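New to this. Help decode both lines:
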Amino acid sequence: MYIKTKKSLLSKRFRTFYPVVIDVETAGFNPITDALLEIGVVTLKMNSYGWLKIDKKIHFHIKPFEGSLIHKEALSFNKIDPFNPFRGAISEKQMLKEIFTIIYQGIKKYECSKAIIVAHNANFDHNFIMAASHRTKSINNPFHSFATFDTASLSGLTVGQTVLSKACRAMGLSFDNNQAHSALYDTLKTANLFCKIVNLWKKIGGWPITNRKIKKS
């Protein structure tokens, strides 16, 4: 029997963690020295039947922090011009303030204790968010300090694919390679993939966990 309130469902599903899907585009691989250039954020919700869905979508272009390194090979890969005046970029501090405010609203609404980053190869995105939070002295960081949900690992388990585009297609989701490496596009695809995997687990009877006896092979 399912719990009726969607607040309790989302809170109970992930051990009181509030899942937030994130993708970052950067000017390199080092979160301490290399610029954070773009971020996409998708928050999630759960309906009264326990199905996970996309809730809010947030997207920012970010100004390189003072003294940051910008590697040409990274820019040729993600096609970002950090100094284009039409980007509408904001500072890391402003970006984190706006994102953290929305996340805390979700934590309160769904009665969760802390946010947890969901991302594809999540360690990369988590490290850049934590480094930016440290740089800007953001004392109200809502994210777990080390735990993440990695959709590369989850999709590897579910469909045997770890590349985002291949995992999406294996799960019946469309993926346009021409739009890839846009933070918002990749975040939306990662969010859809995560929801699909979580909902599939529920559909086949994996949540709530039952006490059914499993036959030994």
